[in-house]
Design brief:
The chain has 17 helices and 8 strands. It has about 350 residues and is of the alpha/beta class. It folds into 3 domains: about 140 residues, Rossmann fold, CATH 3.40.50.300; about 60 residues, Helicase, Ruva Protein, domain 3; about 120 residues, Zinc Finger, Delta Prime, domain 3 (Up-down Bundle). Strand 4, helix 4 and strand 5 form a beta-alpha-beta unit. Helix 11 crosses helix 15 and helix 12 packs antiparallel against helix 17. The model has no long low-confidence stretch (mean pLDDT about 90).
Length: about 350
């Protein structure tokens, strides 16, 4: 049974289940959800907690042994199993499937904690076994579009008064870093517990914690968001990201675009093409946007430019612009549909 993160408090009030699985890309949301679960579990008598992490050499038999052990004076217990990679491996998958088929004790709750799990892994037998026999709670990414509302809601929970544009301005500073957003809201709570918070007051104490990665940069390029592309690229430059890594990511998706456009011109079904090239979920929409915006000749031209920039970085060609960052910026704008013929 899958439930949404906002519905977790009401779900817990209805009684606990023997298996829970918390997963997602937002570590802050996962940890807060688990804290909420633990607090409720303690209130209803689950005072003992055992913790395991599935590392190399982990003995998966321990889970069954601890859950099946019976003692006359044993307390109710929670067994927390962290799977950092989101993939338990063959031995772990078999152990989890076997566990889900066993009879469950009312005195033991197994809580599985994973990071981000892609769609392909969500279709595996072990994940589906937990999803159907336990309670699955996903903690998804809070994207740029939803971040202002998330921040506004969190500020309200703290009982603060604030101007309407505070949430949007703060989201600009902390985009890509939900933990920083939570920390900054806590700071505002300490500094202005009774005052109405304005944008000017917020900017006096808020540092720029926006954190981006190369994948977010390429996604912005595919979406055609020129201003966002430049902002993320500047952030990557400040953080001294290796240009060769950015070029690799750009080349990979530009090459995929070329394959998709060539096949599309031959009349192939777009959805089947996406599956063949490993384009899943939200990225299929981004690729579709780019395919509508760019022609095959344009993508081939961009791919050739990327090849030349690669030679420039390796010292085998002369920069046509001032430096590699300006070259990358030109490619990014080209993917946005600007400055490419």
């Amino acid at each position: 049974m899958r439930i949404s993160l906002p519905s977790l408090p009401d779900h817990l009030k209805q009684g606990l289940h023997p298996v829970y699985h918390f997963f997602g890309a937002e570590i802050l949301l996962i940890e807060e959800a688990i804290d909420l679960f633990r607090a409720h579990a303690v209130d209803v008598g689950y005072h003992e907690r055992l913790r395991f992490t599935s590392e190399t050499g982990f003995d998966w038999n321990q889970i069954a042994e601890y859950t099946q052990s019976v003692s006359l004076f044993a307390e109710k217990k929670i067994i927390e199993l962290r799977i950092p990679t989101g993939k338990p491996g063959d031995a772990g998958a078999k152990a989890l499937i076997s566990y889900m088929s066993m009879g469950k004790s009312d005195d033991t709750i197994l809580v599985i904690i994973s990071g981000e799990i892609d769609k392909r892994t969500q279709n595996t037998k072990w994940f589906k076994a937990i999803d159907s026999g336990g309670v699955t709670v996903e903690c998804p990414v809070i994207g740029a579009a939803k971040l202002p509302n998330w921040i506004a809601s969190r500020i309200k929970e703290k009982g603060l008064n604030f101007d309407q544009d505070v949430a949007e301005r703060l989201s600009y500073f902390v985009e890509g870093n939900l933990l920083a957003a939570a920390q900054e809201i806590n700071l505002l709570t300490l500094l202005y517990p009774t005052q109405r918070i304005s944008v000017e007051m917020m900017e006096q104490v808020i540092a720029d914690h926006a954190r981006f990665n190369v994948y977010g940069f390429v996604d912005a390029c595919l979406a055609g968001s020129a201003n966002r592309c430049i902002r993320i690229l500047q952030s990557l430059k400040r953080e001294q990201m290796e240009p060769i890594v950015i070029l690799w990511a750009l080349s990979k998706d530009t090459r995929t675009l070329c394959h998709l456009l060539m096949a599309s011109e031959r009349g192939a079904n777009p959805q089947s093409l996406f599956q063949q090239h490993g384009v899943w979920g939200n990225r299929s929409r981004l690729m579709s946007d780019a395919m509508r915006r760019l022609s095959l000749p344009q993508c081939i031209s961009l791919l050739r430019r990327l090849g030349r920039i690669d030679l420039m970085v390796k010292g085998r060609a002369t920069f046509q612009r001032q430096n590699v960052w300006e070259e990358i910026e030109g490619i990014a704008l080209g993917l946005c549909g600007l400055g490419v013929s």
